[in-house]
């Protein structure tokens, strides 16, 4: 059984990956700074579930502080690192560039530097489909050029991949970058459309539909992502430097997505059509052949089934959903 340092354990994806590792018997050191990008109450609620496992050790620390990161490695000597923490979000990066500098650049370097000094066996980190920028060739393949990010968020994610490359080259640190494609599900992210649209529909508020609903996203259900993420950490036979897409391989137009949400919410959305947003890409669509071969990855959840589960979870957790809403409204 391994000792895994998992950053961003209070976040959406980190919470689920931590839970899966704990259930398989690994020890997890879960590091998070509980920042207020969205309500910390949701992060605390996820963490409360994790603290129910005796093999979970929570650490409240900021990755941008090199001393805290060093202390964490010294105290826990992890065998493996799963780096999920980041300042996420494309739109937020237009107004808050420094948050991306701190968490995604300084934080990433602080972590990978300790990982190589402590000779961890594998360093897996969250990248993003956003690195494909304005590419028009579909589906997006790991071999496609990724030199044209269209947001600062995407640029920092691409920078992570390049920094990882230099660490693999210089220090023989095995690194695996996972390019996640629009992940959704219960306990999800309030800033993402599936959550904010459902909230608006239920409260009969208008939703802004950018690019007139023509954007297409490869929505990927959280359980499918977790299966790929755990394999990336554990499976034998990976190369020393890997970049792997984890997506559903089935893009859906925003209007179809809204109709499915309406069906499960039992209400019609009030829509305000809007032009494309700066930084947004028109479509994402993952070529997953590499993930299939290297990680045995096979997404199993359709958008319909996944959204049904999300809406049910939301309805069963109205207190938390209300806390998210209060926080959003300031
Ligand atoms: N959810 C998606 O659709 C998606 C898609 C592509 C890539 N990703 C990437 O996957 C990872 C996880 O995303 P998520 O959806 O779980 O986001 P999230 O915001 O829910 O989780 C990120 C967590 O990291 C923590 N964090 C941020 N900066 C930190 C710092 N400096 N020190 C310590 N903790 C810090 C936050 O408090 C949060 O709990 C991120 O790297 C994100 O960029 C997510």
What does this 3D model show about the protein?
- The radius of gyration is 19 Å and the shape is globular.
- Strand 5 (122-128), helix 6 (152-171) and strand 6 (175-180) form a beta-alpha-beta unit.
- The strands form four sheets. The chain has a seven-stranded parallel sheet with strand order 3-2-1-4-5-6-11, sandwiched between helices. Strands 7-10 form a two-stranded parallel sheet.
- It folds into two domains: 3-184 and 220-246, Rossmann fold (3-Layer(aba) Sandwich), CATH 3.40.50.720; 193-217 and 249-284 and 301-329, UDP-galactose 4-epimerase, domain 1 (Alpha-Beta Complex), CATH 3.90.25.
- The protein contains twelve helices and 13 strands.
- The protein has 330 residues and is of the alpha/beta class.
- The longest helix is centred in the N-terminal third of the chain and has 21 residues, at 97-117.
- The protein binds nicotinamide-adenine-dinucleotide.
Using brief descriptors, characterize the structure shown.
about 325 residues, alpha/beta, Rossmann fold, UDP-galactose 4-epimerase, domain 1, 2 domains, seven-stranded parallel sheet, two-stranded parallel ribbon, 13 strands, binds nicotinamide-adenine-dinucleotide
């Amino acid at each position: 059984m391994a000792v895994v340092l998992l950053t961003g354990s209070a976040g959406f994806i980190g919470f689920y990956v931590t839970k899966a590792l704990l259930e398989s018997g690994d020890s997890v050191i879960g590091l998070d700074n509980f920042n207020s990008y969205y309500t910390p109450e949701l992060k605390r609620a996820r963490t409360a579930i994790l603290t129910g496992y005796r093999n979970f050790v929570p650490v409240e620390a900021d990755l941008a502080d090199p001393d805290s990161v060093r202390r964490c490695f010294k105290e826990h000597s992890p065998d493996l690192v799963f780096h999920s923490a980041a300042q996420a979000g494309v739109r937020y990066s237009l107004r808050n560039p420094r948050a991306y500098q701190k968490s995604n650049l300084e934080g990433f370097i602080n972590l990978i530097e300790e990982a190589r000094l402590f000779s961890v066996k594998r360093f897996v980190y969250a990248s993003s489909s956003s690195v494909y920028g304005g590419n028009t060739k579909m589906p997006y393949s790991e071999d496609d050029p990724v030199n044209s990010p269209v947001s600062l968020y995407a640029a920092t994610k691409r920078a992570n991949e390049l920094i990882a490359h230099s660490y693999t080259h210089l220090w023989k640190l095995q690194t695996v970058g996972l390019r996640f494609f629009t992940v959704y599900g219960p306990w999800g992210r309030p800033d993402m459309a599936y959550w904010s649209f459902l909230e608006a529909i239920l409260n009969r508020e208008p939703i802004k539909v950018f690019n007139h609903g023509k954007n297409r996203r490869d929505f990927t259900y959280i359980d499918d992502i977790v299966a790929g993420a755990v394999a990336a950490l554990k499976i034998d036979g990976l190369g020393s430097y890997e970049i792997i897409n984890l997506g559903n391989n089935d893009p859906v137009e925003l209007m179809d997505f809204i109709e499915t949400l309406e069906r499960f919410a039992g209400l019609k959305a009030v829509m305000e059509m809007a032009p494309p947003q700066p930084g947004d890409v028109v479509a994402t669509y993952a070529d997953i052949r590499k993930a299939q071969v290297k990680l045995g990855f096979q997404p199993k959840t359709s958008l319909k089934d996944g959204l049904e589960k999300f809406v049910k979870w939301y309805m069963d957790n109205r207190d938390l959903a209300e806390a998210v809403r209060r926080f959003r409204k300031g």
